[in-house]
Amino acid sequence: MVSDFSLLMPLPLAELEVGQHLYWQIGNLKLHGQVFLTSWFVIAALVIFSLLATRRVERIPSGLQNFMEYALEFIRDLAKNQIGEKEYRPWVPFVGTLFLFIFVSNWSGALVPWKLIELPASELAAPTNDINTTVALALLTSLAYFYAGFSKRGLGYFARYIEPTPILLPINILEDFTKPLSLSFRLFGNILADELVVAVLVLLVPLFVPLPVMALGLFTSAIQALIFATLAAAYIGEAMEGHGGEEHG
């Protein structure tokens, strides 16, 4: 006897696809074209801003140079607090790149009218609005703290998996898998939820109500960039210290 439920769902759920994407076919490899387009926009914006800020370096900074030096000092303090005063300097570029890319990506979703640009089979959005981007950033963070721990402690780095007792070996291994999952899904979920809320409010009440929500979205987007960069620096610091710690943020 065939159930009514099976008649209502003749296709497997695995074949369903949510949304449309612009794919670039390179051999057997499919790339999400819209993610690359918006990511290149963010990278270009950062490069252009850096060139403008360092075009005329003065002893007493002003304008863009002053803003850039403030951002550098902020990132340097963040890395120093999480990694340690003796070890933080080589990691400032990595932590700073993560923070600036995520920060500008998040804000581009709120400030740049991506929806007005029409593509053949998809629509543009912030790079961090795509799970592929956030997972890639999280995996880079995992590689970074593995490299940091192994380069600092050698094979002794793997002793962390049996500390403080070998009974915790499965849990310590599982922690290395949950860290990138937590980083990627937290960032993706917050950015996606913020854009969905703004889109719904603009559709329902198109005049003044969405403005406070958009302002709140800019604030939470900046906080998400700070959380991601802080956790990345904290993981690197923990790896070089040789013991684990709990995730904060």
Q: Calculate the terminal CA-CA distance, rounded to whole Å.
A: 52 Å
Describe the main β-sheet briefly: 2 strands, antiparallel
Based on DSSP secondary structure assignment, what is the total number of beta strands?
2
Rg from C-alpha positions?
A: 22 Å
Q: Please give the domain count.
A: 1
Strand order of the largest sheet: 1-2
Provide mean pLDDT, rounded. 80
Oligomer: single chain
Order of helices and strands: HEEHHHHHH
The unreliable regions are 1-18, 243-249
Main location: membrane
Protein name: ATP synthase subunit a
Keywords: ATP synthesis, CF(0), Hydrogen ion transport, Ion transport, Membrane, Thylakoid, Transmembrane, Transmembrane helix, Transport
InterPro entries: ATP_syn_F0_a_bact/chloroplast, ATP_synth_F0_asu, ATP_synth_F0_asu_AS, F0_ATP_A_sf
Characterize the structure shown.
Belongs to the ATPase A chain family. Its main location: membrane. The chain crosses the membrane at residues 31-53, 91-111, 131-150, 187-209, 215-236. The chain has one domain (20-241). It contains seven helices and two strands; from the N terminus they run αββαααααα. The protein is mainly alpha-helical and 249 residues long. The longest helix is centred in the C-terminal third of the chain and has 36 residues, at 169-204. A hairpin with a 2-residue loop joins strand 1 (23-26) and strand 2 (29-32).
